[in-house]
Amino acid sequence: MDKKEEVKEIPFYYEKHEDYLLNLDKTEERDAIGYYTNDHLRIPGGYWCIGALHLLNTTKDLKDKEMITFLKSCSTPSGGFGANLLQDPSMTSTHYVVLLFSLYKVIWNKETSEIEKIAQYVSHLQDKKTGSFKGDDWGEVDLRFMYCAVSSLKLLNQLSCFDVDKACEFILKCCNPDGAFGGVPGAESHAAYTFCAVGALAILNKLHLIDLDKLGQWLVKRQTTEGGFNGRPEKLPDVCYSWWILSALYMIKRDHWCNKDALKEFILKCQDEEGGISDRQGNQVDVFHTFFGIAALSLICLLYTSDAADERSSVDLGGRRIIKKT
Questions:
Q1: Are 137 and 173 in contact (CB under 8 A)?
Q2: Is 163 helix (H, G, I), strand (E, B) or coil?
Q3: Which among 88, 178, 286, 316 is annotated as catalytic?
Q4: Does residue 222 carry a catalytic annotation?
Q5: Which residue among the candidates 240, 258, 270, 301 is catalytic per the annotation?
Q6: 240 is annotated as an active-site residue
Q7: CA pseudo-torsion sign 118, 121, 123, 126
Q8: Is 258 a catalytic residue?
Q9: Residue in 13, 47, 96, 241 annotated catalytic
């Protein structure tokens, strides 16, 4: 009888991903149209890059002082931050800055009330009647901004500066009969908005307000035959949902309901051997999907162990072995 061939596990290209991330800011194409069309993504892109490097346990060449100086230069008199120099402040950009300051362990200046100014900016964007949060002073509302607000204020230890009960009321109005959440009341359930709702409720210790089993069933149904998750029924799987859905399942303690091995294989297949992760296999890599792919793998494999791998160029992701410590 013929012996079955052993299926070789796909490696995780640690060193290649590290190189890809560390070289993102070294483009010389300053006149290229892509450089300017991505102008509004300087701070979000910075977070995706720095966040991924932290997950890889890489601390070299992070340009701490340079990055902190740049972030502070994006501040505005309102207390909020723009996505780049000379841009208007927004909830999402401010959230990314707070996240980056946390990663860099920035010591806040109490004399200039930096924390209070940021918290005031975030809290003033809450609608006192509905409890929702706007994305900026121009008024767009959805659950993304709710999560950004709650997360930012939690990190700043300022949760007392907004109406928590009204915020929860708005979140619950976005819940659909299937147990998941749309961006606004009456909107179709979507995995990214569902993550925002679950994340905000988890931070506020309010998860008991929703049907966790019904929500868990909707989330696990997002896993496709390819192993990856989609954001809505009948859509293609995408690496970014690996994080949004798996982390939501962890928050509601239903992560054992999905097939993590199949999800891991889907993410690993979306790697480029030269570094970076794409939305799905064969597509162009980008920093956004690289970050969320690595973040999802960090949940699946429980991150760092001292005996992570024997090879420098790739890391064995079997069991609980993942990214190598240096």
A1: no
A2: coil
A3: 286
A4: no
A5: 240
A6: yes
A7: negative
A8: no
A9: 241
- Asked if 235 is an active-site residue, the reply is yes
Q: Is 47 a catalytic residue?
A: no
SS3 content of the chain, % helix, strand, coil (to 5): 50, 5, 45
User: What DSSP designation does 77 have?
Assistant: T
Q: Which residue shows structure tokens 């340009």?
A: 63
Q: Which of 279, 301, 321, 324 is catalytic?
A: 279
Q: Which residues contact 13 (CB under 8 A, 6 or more apart)?
A: 271, 272, 273, 275, 313, 314
* pLDDT profile of the chain (326 residues), mean per 10: 59 93 71 50 89 86 82 94 92 96 78 84 97 95 98 96 98 98 98 98 98 98 97 96 97 97 96 96 94 95 45 42 44
Pull the structure tokens for residue 88. Answer: 């208007």
Q: Structure pTM?
A: 0.88
Active site residue 211: no
Q: List, as one string, the DSSP characters of 117-153.
A: HHHHHHHHTB-TTT--BBSSTT--B-HHHHHHHHHHH
| Catalytic status, residue 17 | no
**Of residues 233, 138, 154, 136, the one with CA closest to residue 190:** 233
